[in-house]
Fold this protein.
Amino acid sequence: MLNQHEIMQTIQMIDQQHLDVRTITMGISLLSCAHSDVKVACDKVYDKITRYAEHLVATGEAIEKEFGIPIVNKRISVTPIALVAAAAETDNYTPFAQTLDRAAKTCGVNFIGGFSALVQKGMTKADRILINSIPEALSTTDIVCASVNVGSTKAGIDMDAVALMGRTIKDLAGRTADKGGFGCAKLVVFCNAVEDNPFMAGAFHGVGEPEKVINVGVSGPGVVYHALQAVKGQPFDVVAETVKKTAFRITRMGQLVAQEASRRLDTPFGIVDLSLAPTPAVGDSVARILEEMGLEVCGTHGTTAALALLNDAVKKGGVMASSSVGGLSGAFIPVSEDEGMIAAASAGALTLDKLEAMTCVCSVGLDMIAVPGDTSAETISAIIADEAAIGMVNSKTTAVRLIPAPGCKVGDMVEFGGLLGSAPVQPVHPYSSADFVARGGRIPAPMQSLKN
Amino acid sequence: MKAIVTVIGKDRVGITAAVCSLLAQHNINILDITQTVLQEYFTMVMLVDTSACAQSIGDMSDILDQAGKEQGLSIRIQREDIFNAMHRI
């Protein structure tokens, strides 16, 4: 029999510590929708998504009510569109993005991801068309997310794609200038992208995945923060144990929701993604957890070690709580979506360089960072190359989601609203990387032994 | 199906009576009940059986939420599974 303390502990986590299931994401394979005629292909895409995900939102809401646990987002991920659209005779894939947007709105989901290409070892004709279509596709749709995988530990880094992505991000920012370059918040550049990620903007349904699948992303920085407040001043062994126990509880809840959703939607359960995903709400911040460990402000010396401990403990606690763990699974450090990160970056304590170092030990990368509007495409490409190199060498997923906010300079604040929050514009190095990026070609895959 | 009903709010006369009669109206059987008052705050936790209830737990959640708002309380019903998942291996 449960005791009152345990029950009230759960109620407090939900009421006061922002415990929630961040997303139920349905992955849908669109490989069967390929067709040489764009219109026919788009109709097939629309029909398949709206058929498979018809009850996704209603089911999510029903589970939310019965268990009394908030499920913040319901989302869809699809097969990378560069694969689906490759057969279509066209040089612009924007109609596919618009179809995804329409289908997602019909289903009532918050986001749809998968306007994607995997180009770690080189670009096909279709990959190139997709990347060239991204600026128009994302600026003429509302809830479509795009991602491009430019590198992997096995393949190295495609520097031609990296150069192209720098220009693409600049173009997209310019087209959405009236909204602070908001389009770029929907575009992620990956190294070692995973095929079962339920989190946006980087979700897509990999080709190794089944016809359809339910993946769930849990959250709970506020719960971890609160648990650590009870062990002030104690050694790191105690900190790690506390985080593990908390992560276990959070993940068990996610597992339960995932299984229930899978059963009701008659869709196989894929994975639970054990991520600490912050929101701009006070008390739901990853930065504040790091500060609770004894740092005056997130970004100061010690931050990387604190994050390494946190990230590892979350995984250790979560793995035992779920039958299948996958996705990105780690602590996210998106600047604009984390109240503590925003404060640290605004104070100048958290720099781009420190964030880059932090991405070596956590999931996922340089995320939701605003940089000055006059940052060159080459500098953005060089930042992507640096981040991809970290992922490639360390056999982990890294990503870049930068917003070169048009017309904004260092110190300005860019507002995105909702879960995406607001970002202080952070400085980049003023020295050129243009000749480096102009070389093109491939950075070879790294050694997997003789590690130092 | 078993569920947990929690009632939280400022203490006053008749909270337990009001909640229990509301549950009785909907044929919900109370299996176990604990309550405490801490610093004028009333907290009650009930284990209930909803198998004879005509409404779904989702609908009951709305009914209890509404009743709670009228009385200045937070009343909720949640399936027992969520607590078992979080607190039992």
